[in-house]
Design brief:
Distance between the termini: 29 Å
Strand order of the largest sheet: 2-1-3-5-6-4
Bound molecules: 2'-monophosphoadenosine-5'-diphosphate
Mean pLDDT: 96
Largest sheet: 6 strands, mixed
Low-confidence stretches: none
Oligomer: single chain
Number of helices: 9
Structural class: alpha/beta
């Protein structure tokens, strides 16, 4: 039986095992997908296990998407451009390949919301692990402008080294935008509030929250009340998982209402 693993810290709330095991069963694949909370110093042994084929594929989540790179033999162009790896597999030569399926996840999500993403002005809140994937995708989708604001400005400055076309906005300021993306962890707790006042923004903008659990963060609740269109990150999560599944098993898994309900 093949074994797949998602590693991160914390990992308790990860829904990846539920999703992957559902698709594994649906496709009659002899495999199991588990989650493991790891400390930095344990990553080395996980990679050794992968080399020994005790583990056949790994998903990587917060906070290791960048740190894992030092254990990887070959980075896909997407992983290299974003300096972020969320999916590990072996190529025909037996090299350890690091890829980034968050890009495909976010791209598929953006293409599924009945909105033309091209030529739009995007305002991203946060500069954590997933933001390089968001910026990469928005460039690919033809964004006219990408603005990034982070409480700790240095992290936004680091992102600008990777993507010189972004502009940095002081934390607390709200520039005009077509789409705003919450990529901070504010909202994971039910009572979390982002201390920004959106009441002066014209309505009918798109408010996207990477967070999908809770389903509707206060960020999205407020946006809806103010007359905007809202979307959470559930489809991004499903599509990044589906891209990893296809790489490992050579099968495109089904995405339907039943699959999406699994994550409620
Ligand atoms: P990491 O920064 O380790 O990659 P993350 O969960 O991917 O972790 O990112 C957390 C994001 O939420 C960061 O952008 C963080 O801002 P800082 O870089 O200033 O830490 C942001 N964040 C978390 N708590 C916040 C708060 N109370 N106010 C504003 N931003 C916050």
């Amino acid at each position: 039986m093949k074994k797949y693993l998602v590693i991160g810290n914390p990992i308790e709330h990860s829904l990846s095992p539920k999703l992957h095991n559902y698709w594994i069963e649906e496709n009659n694949i002899d495999a199991i997908y588990e989650k493991k909370e790891v400390k930095s110093e344990e990553i080395k042994n996980i990679i050794l296990d992968f080399k020994k084929k005790n583990i056949n594929g790994i998903n990587v989540t917060v906070p290791f998407k960048k740190d894992i790179i030092s254990y990887i033999d070959v980075l896909s162009p997407e992983a290299n451009a974003t300096q972020s790896v969320n999916t590990i597999f072996s190529d025909k030569q037996g090299s350890i390949v690091g890829h980034n399926t968050d890009i495909e996840g976010f791209e598929m999500n953006m293409l599924n919301i009945n909105y033309n993403p091209k030529g739009k002005r995007y305002f991203i809140l946060g500069a954590g692990g997933v933001v390089s994937s968001i910026i990469f995708t928005l460039n690919k989708l033809g964004a006219s402008e990408i603005l990034v604001s982070n409480r700790t400005e240095q992290k936004a400055i680091n992102l600008k080294k990777l993507f010189p076309n972004i502009s940095i906005v002081d934390w607390g300021e709200i520039p005009s935008f077509d789409v705003i993306i919450n990529a901070t962890s504010l909202g994971l707790e039910k009572n979390d509030l982002i201390d920004l006042d959106f009441s002066k923004i014209e309505n009918n903008k798109i408010f996207y929250d990477i967070i999908y659990n809770p389903k509707e963060t206060n960020f999205l609740k407020t946006a809806k009340k103010l007359g905007n269109i809202t979307e959470n990150g559930k489809l991004m999560f499903v599509y990044q998982a589906s891209a990893a599944f296809e790489i490992w098993h050579g099968v495109k898994p089904r995405i339907n209402d039943e699959v999406i309900k699994l994550l409620d």
